[in-house]
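We modelled each protein-ligand pair independently. The example shown here corresponds to the zinc ion entry; the chain sequence is given first, followed by the ligand as SMILES.
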Amino acid sequence: MTIERAAIVCKERGLPGVALTDHMDIDTPTGVDRFMFDPGQQQLMCDKISRKYGVELLKGIELGLQPNTVEKSRERLSPFTFDTVILSVHFVDGLDPYHQPDFFEGKDYIRAYGRYLETILECIKGYGDFDTLGHYDYITRYAPYKERVIRYSDFPDLMDSILSYLAQNGKALEINTNTYRSRYRGASSPDPDIFRRFKELGGKFVSLGSDSHTDDRIYDNFGFFADFLSNCGFRYLTMFRGRKASLTSI
Ligand SMILES: [Zn+2]
């Protein structure tokens, strides 16, 4: 989807705007550089298209990290200023679970999901300069197990480490609505205990991301997941503008 198409859809649907979080992952395990983009070009286009259509286009990035790409990614992004930075993890132990299902071989779900969460913890602590942790349960999309949700009760220590870090550093925990689409044959929503625990640990910021790739999925299922977050005790959704949290009542 082009930036212009996103702006047109916002205009047509009466939406105030959208955060464009193009995906960057360097040194991918399969050597594919599909997930690269030029932030300078993106930002110029955002300004131009935003003026043309009168909708707000936030300049964002979804930065995919591996422990060994933390410093290289920091260097790569240092010339740019974003509205919002989502940090996410797509690869574990040098493997891409989407294209390389052998990641799951010989592991039960506790081991596989646990390695994913350990990698998230290492990356968020190592990088630090982000606003939102994206799709903490991405690994479940491609997992071969019948357990298709990351439950707090299965990983209390690891989840506490991740959630405490986010809470203490003013970061947002995202629900990525893409994960719960029927195409992945998984859970229809995340484990509410994870969001309740985040709140207990002092977490204030939660956000929704549609990871929409195509224009029909912009804001996909936001009503349902806003209710979910409200039931977990949150009163506001968060977006970041100029790297500062901006809250909207649920
Ligand atoms: Zn992602």
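The chain has a mean pLDDT of 92.
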